[in-house]
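As noted in the main text, all predictions were made from sequence alone. Below is one such record, for Transcriptional regulator.
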Amino acid sequence: MSREDQNADAEKGEERRGGSPQSVTRVIRLLEALCVSTEPVSLADLSRRLATPKSSLAALLRGLADEDFVTAAEGAWRLGPGAFGLGSALTEARRRLQSSDLVRAGMRRLCERSGETVLLAVGDHDGDQVTYVDLVESPNVVRYSVSIGDRRPFYATAGGRALLSTCSPAAVDVYLKRAALERLSPATVTHPAALVQIVDQVRERGYAQTVDQAAEGVTGSASVIRDASARVVGALVIAAPSGRAQGRLDELGQLVREEAAAISRSLGFR
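Prediction:
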């Protein structure tokens, strides 16, 4: 028996025992694969793209075809009218559920997971400072305190560095030449070459992190949120007292990156 047949038999066994969550996930991934393709896709291509046995995909496609979510086209598959109807309904539902509500829900989740204050930072029109436009405060008695509307420089904050990482290297250079790189604490990095290297690192790992940069005793971890059009909505920030953050910097970085990605998905970013 081939490995594909063995996998298919195992999946059938799961479904007979009460339904397979994996099948639900595969239906979603299958529809996403057809969404991004400009041409009908063969079963073999879908199998390769989704790393799923053809026999399993064939069963899913037949079920979707019965509901007009997909249509067979010369030995390949494309989206059917049912999928477009569902897409329109989802778009309308998303319009009713405001993006700010989705972001706020993610901020509350992150506050619960991290135990720290969570902020939403956006860049100003000049691209020199971030403004905190929303926050969920930590339940801890000792916590980072900030007010909505407070502004901080890009170069010295986790949120600002995360936003800078979405810019081209040339745009970052222009900003660093224009900005007044003042030392806000003994640890503040102000050398342009060092800041360029830091922003490059943020791009690679998907989140920014600062320790005692904008102020002594404050550690920030931030990652960017995007919407369905890939537009940057802002930076999601965990702000914590440095004493409590030490020893869990990697954890905080991973948490903010994961939650920013989850919020972005809820806003339609793929």
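DSSP finds eleven helices and nine strands in the chain. The domain at 3-94 is CATH 1.10.10.10 (Arc Repressor Mutant, subunit A). These features were considered when defining construct boundaries for the mutagenesis experiments described in Section 2.9.
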